[in-house]
Amino acid sequence: xxxxxxxxxxxxxxxxxxxxxxxxxxxxxxxxxxxxxxxxxxxxxxxxxxxxxxxxxxxxxxxxxxxxxxxxxxxxxxxxxxxxxxxxxxxxxxxxxxxxxxxxxxxxxxxxxxxxxxxxxxxxxxxxxxxxxxxxxxxxxxxxxxxxxxxxxxxxxxxxxxxxxxxxxxxxxxxxxxxxxxxxxxxxxxxxxxxxxxxxxxxxxxxxxxxxxxxxxxxxxxxxxxxxxxxxxxxxxxxxxxxxxxxxxxxxxxxxxxxxx
Length: 261
Ligand SMILES: Nc1ncnc2c1ncn2[C@@H]1O[C@H](COP(=O)(O)OP(=O)(O)OP(=O)(O)O)[C@@H](O)[C@H]1O
Ligand SMILES: [Mg+2]
Fold this sequence. Notes:
- The chain is α/β, with parallel strands linked by helices.
- It contains 8 helices and 9 strands.
- Helices cover about 35% and strands about 25% of the residues.
């Protein structure tokens, strides 16, 4: 079960300490269907994290709006329906791995044995078996991001927002996590938005790749990814996968030409 996201003529401006205003994002409009997985590709500083923050209900737009099933995202956020993984792991160092995963539930009420079991199952599914009682500083960055992903999934969110969650990982680890992530997303029909700089990751994860321009980020083009919903490592050995990679690379190149021209 997911939610439909509508981004409608969204812009965000920041006021700098100098007093100047900077146009960080947009105007940008896009729609993400219920249960759809979309990857956002765009140059550094074009406003991707900014858009994710607005979509998560953590930042107000300067103009335009984001709606989640017709509501302001702050409402589903308060109901625990949005899971977010940020660019850097944001775990509480004084809490164990298990307690970090349980945190969103503790904030909202009591945690019973069933929910604790669910958290442990989630940690096992994401490759952290045996580390439930460890502390974040005893984990590698990749393991911390796994923990952050488990925390984002613990409330079975309708919407999952991922901001380059695997950027600091080596290729092998990244690939494993990409498939772990797919396995977590598939049965739930969660609506997901993945920000990434990595074309392979974008194609592997998504039903659609959206390409953004330089700051202030606008939608330049999109590529549909026609690889089916369920994907396993064999997809990486298929010609169709590489056809999509080429399509996205071309779209990126043309978008740069378009912006430059
Ligand atoms: N809190 C802030 N105050 C002022 N300017 C900001 C703030 N956050 C971001 N910016 C500016 O807004 C623009 C977009 O930033 P954002 O972090 O959304 O980019 P991004 O696309 O996520 O980049 P990256 O790929 O490097 O993570 C940048 O020019 C950045 O300097
Ligand atoms: Mg960012």
